[in-house]
Amino acid sequence: MSTRRRNSSLGLGTGAMGSESGPPSSRLKDIAKSLKSGVIGGGGKMDPLDSCFFVMCSGQVSIGDFNGKERLYVKYDYTYGKDWMVVRGVDRGVSQVAHKGEGSTKVVWNFPLDVVFRGTSVHGWPRIVVSVFGIDMFGRDTPVGYGTTVLPLSTGQSKRTVPMFKPVLQTWVQQLTSWVRGTQPEYYDSRFVGKATGREVTRVSSEGIVILDLNIMTRGLEKHGYAATRQQGERLAKKAIEEAENNNPAVGGNGGAPRASSPSRKKTDLNSSLDLLRSKLGRKWRSEA
Question: How far is the CA of 84 from the CAs of 22, 52, 53, in angstroms?
Answer without folding.
Answer: 25, 9, 10
